[in-house]
Amino acid sequence: MKRKYTVGSGLLFLLIAGGVGYLIGLGLDALIMKNVRWTAPVPSAFSLLFAFTAFFFGVYGYRGITRGLVYQVVWTLIGGFIVTGIRVMMGLSVFGGFFFTEPAWVFGALVGAVAFLFGVGVMDDWVKWARGIDTPEFHEDEPGWEKFLGVSLDHKVIGIQYTVTALFLISVGGTFALIFRTELAASGLQFLNVGMNLFGQNGPQLYNTLMSLHGMIMIVSILLGIAGIINYAVPLLVGAHDMAFPRMNAFAYWVSVPAAVLLLMSLVLGGFDTGWTGYPPLSVKAPVGQQMFFLGVFIAGWSSILGALNVIATVVRMRARGMTAMRMPILVWASVATSIIALTATQLIGLSFQLVMFQRLFGMGFFDPAKGGNPVLFQHLFWFYSHPAVYVFVLPGLGVISELLPVFVRKPLFGYRWVAMSSLGIALVGFLVWAHHMFTSGMNEYLRVPFMYSTLLVAVPTGVKFFSWVATIWGGKIETPTPMLFVLGAIVVFLMGGLSGPPNATVSVDLHLHDTYFIVGHFHDTIFGGFVFPFFAAIYYWFPKATGRRMNEFWGKVHFWLMTPSFLILTFGMMRVGLLGMRRRIADYDPAQGFDTTHLILTIAAFAIALSVLIFLINFFHSIKHGEKAQGNVWNSRSPEWQVSSPMPAHNYETPFEVVGEPYDYGLPGSKYIDFVPAQGGKH
Amino acid sequence: MRHFVIVGILVIALAVLTYVGLDSAGLMPVPASAQAGPIDWLWDLQVKAMSFLFSLIVVPMLYSLLVFRRKKGDTTDAVHVEGNTTLEVVWTVIPLVVVLGMAFVGAQNLGETRRADPDAMVVNVTGFQWGWSFEYPEYGITSKELYLPVNKQVLLKMTSRDVIHSFWVPEFRVKQDLVPGRITELRITPTLLGDTYKVRCSEICGTSHAYMENPVIVVEKVAFDAWVAEQQALAAEAGQTPEGRGLALVTANGCRGCHSIDGSPGVGPTWFRLAGSEVPLSGGGTVIADDAFLAESILQPQAKIVAGFEAQQMPAYNFTEEQVADIIAYIKTLK
After folding, report:
1. Contact assessment for residue B222 and residue A224, using Cβ atoms and an 8 Å cutoff
2. What's this model's pTM, rounded to 2 decimal places?
3. What percent of chain A clears pLDDT 90, i.e. is strictly above it?
4. What are the chain B neighbours of A473 within 8 Å (beta carbons)?
5. How many structural domains comprise chain B?
């Protein structure tokens, strides 16, 4: 019957396949280049793909994610060889320094990503329907942890899949940050110098690749992280048995996996040196890794768009009886606001990256001044998504803050309507501010002024949130278990991000601040305050709901008290050197500027943050099996999901509920938010 | 009521303390241009606003945490307060007025930094991977260093030869991107003498982006004129010999941003003792670096790639035959 697979056998397979892949790559590379190149891109690429795939084979066997990855590897090669064959017939160059030529890699990668989806099995039902075969509405999941490595239609499983994938990518992106943060600890190039060579890149190029990938991998991990929170929590909060489109939900998750593989592939295929923004003409000149990056982001965008569509449909159509708009939990409002942005803006980053891909592949001159193109146009298209994207990242986190605060201060959320509307306000204004990223770009100089006005307007709805939070806390009977600590930390850190924002909005001051470490510090404050802290709060808070056990409280507090001061030191230091003249995205800095000491402190702070996250990860995985049992209403919350036992039953509420009161009426005697009422026939 | 009075006093105290602390830390570099004046003024105003808002949020939060903490053994909920519409309107409308005012002040402030002097000295700036070249059309000279007379507005007309770069001297504050295929402008009036300023590229432009820094030197008018005369004489003298003309070309095109002349490693192969040496090629084999190879490497850099430099993309240069000969003559002097 079923073989017993373990993490140990996975690691064994990983090592063996990594070695085999490396040797195959080395052989192929030597064949093409007539030279044995130990640190060349191709052996590393093969090693990475093989090891990744074999790990899951060892853990899980040939099904689900393993089959998806095998399909992806095989079809990437098949696609590559198809284009190579066509090139042979056309008399074009056949192989290059990266084994395949660039068009062959791009086509292969695209085919491979599509093949992954068929391999993993997320297309199965649709394929069957197309062939006229009926399938059951629900597929029962395996009982154990194995269900997380294959296709499941249960929103709770998908939410956890998203969350764990996000944690994995956060670890990868964080490791990249530690590598280049270490290089920055002193001026001069310590180990990423021109003498070294890895994956076809010398030290400074590898620095640029790691820095660029840190940005985009973290962005993807954030998108997956918020999808995790939303997927897990929203159907429970609105009383639905699942998301509106469970198959599309699974598709949206699984499409992000080949996208993440492509992003990692870009590291070994020559890398790219553009930062996560990928501005042409620089991105037109970068190695083939740039194309893997573009394609990875393009495919990850599908995850975001389809996920957002699903959230909106679920909230609009599947709320419990009596849950009017103004009685929805506040996190649901935030999720809708974020989904509106993700659904309507994500296309623009995909489009802008696609145009550069086409410029590279087909010589189309969209952004090439020699062919009548305009490099600044790219920046408009890019930021039209990438600024609202920041609100996609933070709105769910701000929703988590508003959702959790009343539970731990035992008071209603102050000004519920205003907080709900401020999310929509931020989403709306967020669409009108993109050009504040371009004040120095050479766009029309007078247009900078209206964008200054619109950008400063964002402060108004954001202010409403802050004031309402403070008013909620004021006079509450405050408890501070770990989730509440992270909520409070989120408010303080997001406040730092919020306060350092307006100077960037005023054009003249921004002429000094733009592209410096001040922006880096500001941005990390908004993202940690708006996503990372609330994400941790949400995990600590809903962990008992998902597993029936609590995470360790002591280590949770250690995590918080180690991470928060380190992080504040990190971003204060960043802003400090930025104001004094530290440019962003540089591998080295002028010792005459006197930043060495500050950078050393920043590097130490970064390692402290990494240590705290490591503590969190150990706590997380350890508590799944060994945490203290917690099956009841752990936080004494009014929210519907806590009124039933943990872990949540497979199809959520066995008895549907009806909303009979306000969600946050803590302190009002006799008040109720929901009543469980037996269904009166039919599904809701 | 007592709580509100205490918190009010604490908010003001912390706001003052925060501002004094930030202000005394010396947040900005030395202001060295007329444009820095209004920018630093507005920044200071914003630091005051930030200090106040920081206190306004943090003090009541910390105060609540300390004073309203749940007492041991208390399991009841807090007082039921749903909200207050007047308060919500107040903290929507006041910030709205403040940010509109800030935007208005910001627009005025931007105008001040852009005040144009019709007699400004024009300098044509070219950015390239990885360096800067400054051409003074009035004087017919080109330099790697940006020499500027003090208290005289300079109009920088900037473009890029390859990718986007950005002109920034932190002490001058203002910043402007250089975009290939078009000319962007920036006006700066240096007000403080100094020879340690640097123009630092602040838009990522590839491998050696960090090192795209050239000196900026602000001098008295007399010293500036002397420098101009000296440069003109040097240019005239260098024009006499092939290696002199070659050096001028190499400087104007920023070749040494990648190719060192002393044997130290760089983004491209060093030129030190290059001429006549045996060079290993990517994909095996070697070639003697004779005139033909050097010329080919300048005009068609991708034709033969030196081993270890596969990932680099040197652009092809459109030099005339004489110019190529001049550059080779210069490279031959590097022994």
Report:
1. no
2. 0.91
3. 75
4. 60-61, 64-65, 68
5. 3
